[in-house]
Amino acid sequence: MITTLDTTMLGEVSDLIAERMGLHFPEERWPDLARGLKAAGEDLGFEYPDACISWLRSGELTTRQIETLASHLTVGETCFFRDLASFEALEREILPPLIARRSEAGRTLRLWSAGCCTGEEAYSLAIACTRVLPDPGAWNVSILATDINPKFLAKADAGIYSDWSFRGAPGWLRERFFFPRQDKNLAIDPTLKNLVHFGYLNLAEDAYPSLHNHTNAMDVIFCRNVLMYFTPGHQRRVAEALHRCLVEGGCLLVNPAEASASLFPMFAMEDIGGVILYRKTSQPNRHESWPAIVLPAPAPPVPVAPTPPITPTTAPPREDPLVLGRAYANQGRLDEALASCRDAIEADRTNPVAQFLYATICQELGRLEEAVGALGKVLYLDQDFILAHHALGGLYKRLDRQKESRRHIAVALKLLSARGRDEIVSESDGMTCGRLMESVRAMAEPMP
Ligand SMILES: C[S@@+](CC[C@H](N)C(=O)[O-])C[C@H]1O[C@@H](n2cnc3c(N)ncnc32)[C@H](O)[C@@H]1O
User: Among the four 70, 142, 299, 418, which has the fewest Cβ within 10 Å?
Assistant: First the structure.
C-alpha cells in the first residue's frame, strides 16, 4: 500500500510536486499526499501505487499528467462571495474610482480570479462589476478565471451550482443572478457567464503576464486561498509575477491569512475597513531589496522576451509603433495599442507580427470577428504562423464554427510536431512548442 511507502519516497515526491505545481506538502500532510497519489495513480492507469511513484520520480510530466495529479492534490473549497468583506471593498472602494477613470477612456475592466476553483469567485467578480457599473452593456468587462485542476474548470464552465455554493452569500444573489433548474440546482445568468473566460493556468509553471493567455494589464486580481498551499519560494515568485500582470494602480487581494506584507514588498499595502489589498504603484512598500518600480512592467519571467520594455508615456516620438503598441497593450491601454498597431501595419503591410498583435488586441476588446479577419491576414502573409492557427482554433470554437476550428487546430499541431519540444514559439512571450502543443491538444478535446 502507498500509505506504507517509505518517507524518502514521499519526501522526493513532495519535492517534485512543489517544483512543478508549487504545492507544499510538509511532513504532517504526507498522509494527504499519499492518499492523493494513490487516487491519481489509479486515474493514470497504474496498477500499483509505487509504480506511479517510480514513474513520477523518473519522468517528464506533461500538462495532462500534472492536471491529473492536481485533480487529486488540490483543495476545492470555495463559495459565492466568500469573505464578503473583500467583495464589499471591491464594490464600494475599488471599482467606483476605477470606473470613474475608465468611463472617460476605454470603458474596459479586466479582473482575474487566479486559482478560481469551481468558478464561484469569478462569477462573484462578474456580479460585483454588474452591480456597480451604471450601464454594464456599454462596457467591455472581462473576467479571466484560471486553475490547474481541469475538473474544477469543467464545473466552473458549466455554471450550475447547488445550495452549498451559496452558503453565507447575501440573500439577493440567487434571485437576481441565477435561474432555478428542475434538478433544484441553480444556473448562472448567461449574460454574466459571457463575461467570464475559464482556462488552465499553472501558477507555478506557466508564463505570465502574457498577451496570449490574457494575463496582461489586469485591474484587479483575486488570488485568495491559493498561495497558502504553496512553498515559500513559489509564493514569492507568484507574488512578483502577479505584480507584473497588473496595470499601474491595479490591486491584488489575497486571503487575510496569506497577506503577510513581507511577501508583497513590491506593492503598497492598503487597509480598507479591515480588508488588506496590495496596490501596484510606483511607490511601493519600503523594502531594502526592492528598487522603485517604473512603468511599464518589467519583461515577463520567461527566457525569451519579444521586445524590450518601454514606457509609452516617455517613448520618443520616433519609437517603433509595433514596440509601442505592445507596451500600450501590456498596460491595458487598448485603444492606443490598436492605433499604434495600425501605424505599424501602415508602415509595413508585409509584417505579419503587426497584424497578429492587432488581432490579439481585438480579441481582448471582444471584437472577435475583427480578430478573425486580422488573423486571416497574418496567415496570408505567413501561412506557418503557429500562434495565428492556435488563436483561430480558439476563436472559431467560441464562435461555434467547429469545422474551421478543427482545421486550424490540425495545422497548429502539424507545425508544432515538426519543432523541438523546448523550442520557443515566436511571438509567444517565451512559451515552448511542447507547452503550446499540450494547450492545442486540450483545445481539440472537450472538457472532462
Ligand atoms: C481553496 S481553492 C480557492 C478558490 C478561490 N480562490 C476561493 O478563494 O474561494 C484553491 C485553488 O487553487 C488551485 N491551485 C492549486 N495549485 C495551483 C497552481 N499551481 N496553479 C493554479 N491553480 C492552483 C486549486 O486547484 C484550487 O482550485
Answer: 418
Residue-level pLDDT at 3: 44
Under DSSP, is residue 141 helix (H, G, I), strand (E, B) or coil? Answer: strand
Mean per-residue pLDDT of the chain: 85
Collapsing DSSP to helix, strand or coil, 336 comes out as helix
Among protein residues, the one whose CA lies closest to atom 3 of ligand 1: 225
pLDDT, residue 5, reads: 64
Contact 266, 279 (CB under 8 A): no
Pairing between β-strand 186-188 and β-strand 275-279 as defined by DSSP bridges: unpaired
Which residues sit with their C-beta closer than 6 Å to ligand 1? 21-23, 70, 74-78, 82, 115, 117, 121, 147-149, 152, 202-204, 224-226, 229
- Output the CA 335–ligand 1 centroid distance in Å: 33
- Name the closest-CA residue to atom 14, ligand 1: 115
pLDDT computed for residue 309 by the predictor: 45
Domains of the chain from N-terminus onward: 2-73 (no CATH), 84-279 (3.40.50.150), 312-444 (1.25.40.10)
The string of pLDDT tens digits covering residues 174-192 is 999 999 999 999 999 999 9
Out of 226, 231, 234, give the residue to mutate to test ligand 1, the one with the largest number of ligand atoms within 8 Å of its CB: 226
Centre of ligand 1 from the C-alpha of residue 178, in Å: 24
Q: Whole-angstrom distance between the N-terminal and C-terminal Cα of the chain?
A: 29
pLDDT of residue 198: 93
Task: Catalogue the long-range contacts made by 372-377 (C-beta closer than 8 Å, 24 or more residues apart).
Answer: 372/396, 372/399, 377/352
Q: In the chain, how many H helices and how many E strands?
A: 18, 10
Kindly tell me if the per-residue pLDDT of 417 is higher than 90: yes
More reliable by pLDDT, 392 or 329: 392
How many angstroms separate the alpha carbon of residue 114 from the centre of ligand 1? 7
**Cell numbers at 369, concatenated:** 470577428
User: Atom 12 (ligand 1): residue with closest C-alpha?
Assistant: 115
Fill in the amino acid letter for 183. D
Strand-pairing partners, residue 143, are 111, 196
